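cron nightly-structures :: item 1 of 1
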Amino acid sequence: MNSERMQVTTVGDIPVFSFFKRALDPLVILGTLFVLTRVMGEPFTGNYMVLAIIAFFVSAWLYEQVDASRNWRGGRLMAFARDVFFGWAIFVAIIVLIGYATGYGYQYAENVILWWFILTPFVLLGGHLALRKIASDLHRGGQPRSVVIVGLNETGLKLARRIGESPHHMMEVRGFFDDRGARRDSPDAASAPAVALLGKMADIADYVREQGINVIFISQPMSAQPRVRQLLDELQDTTASIYFLPDIYTFDLMQARFDEVGGMPVVAIRETPFSGINSLVKRSSDILLACVILLLLAPFMIGIAIAVKCTSPGPVIFRQRRYGLNGDEIVVYKFRSMAVTEDGARVTQARKDDMRVTRLGAVLRRTSLDELPQFINVLEGSMSIVGPRPHAVAHNEQYRGLIKGYMLRHKVKPGITGWAQVNGLRGETDTLDKMAARVEFDLDYLRSWSLALDLWIILRTVKVVLKRDNAY
């Protein structure tokens, strides 16, 4: 289950902390620029004010896309630091590009801008550490809001655990109400705080009034609607805030979020990560990187094309039908590495010491140089640089009925490299278990996508290619 990726407003945030979590990065970036101008004796002129305004909006948007706080909330501090530095590298590239395009880059002191670029990511990390320390101190010294949870089930236990792990929410779980008694069979039960069963559902209203409970979370299945309505009627005589935890978390969520259609609230259970602004971010980064790579490698690719033509009969470019976005067929380009060009109802995967592979083809496949023409697919819009690797149509038809969720990997464009490939699942998938593992990594990529993750996969791909494992 993947409830942690449900895009909802955090009800436990004190408004001031909710504001600072959103504004911290832009404010730190602007503050660092201002301090550096003072330290280096530069007047903070109108040009610097223009830069500050641009920096505020670019950084606010950028770090929302990178979503480094996802790793921060999960306690993965090294991953959080990586996302901060990735986001800052992209920010620097955008600012340099704007400065070059407008000619404004020459209006600023080089030493100020250089030190701003170098120091800011470290100041960002320090700012987040300081905010966490302040939140923790306030939690110890302040009065947290009292919470009870209706429903001693997996979702309720997970919420209790998250509240316990997040002191900045300033909330304290007093216990649970449930008609079924204590249950410890949940995967989250072992890691949840000590469970206090305060009573049955009929006891809630009296307990809330007597103890002055501030917040109530109702974790009940949708089938319990009549009981929930009765509970809400009983709680009208209290001032407690009430929130409902829908049991959609029992589903396998993918980019789940609340939305509305024609004014009607709806919940997305499975959706592509590339909707709205994310689609523009993904496509822009694909075009930019593909253009740079093709320009740099064009002479090398011409050399490979000549070598393929001269060393074996057949076309230079092998075209194969594969499934793309939404399961539509696309044509994928590769440098031909085999003596055959299979694209029928049955396609045999390449194996170690495969007799169909040419001598030059073996080198191309080991180094993944045969994949370089797929950057043309990226420019055409049928592929992305990072995404689930496309399989031959015959393999898709074979596995879609064997592996649960197989076709969900086609909610996004296929990629030249992917999350599965940099996690040891590159090359031949000669067993069903290997293919199922690859699909699971692909679906995890869809659930977890961020621009920083894409850049991390690209860097990891270079290392994987140099190792030359499992590529035949």
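cron nightly-structures :: done
The two ends are 35 Å apart (CA to CA).
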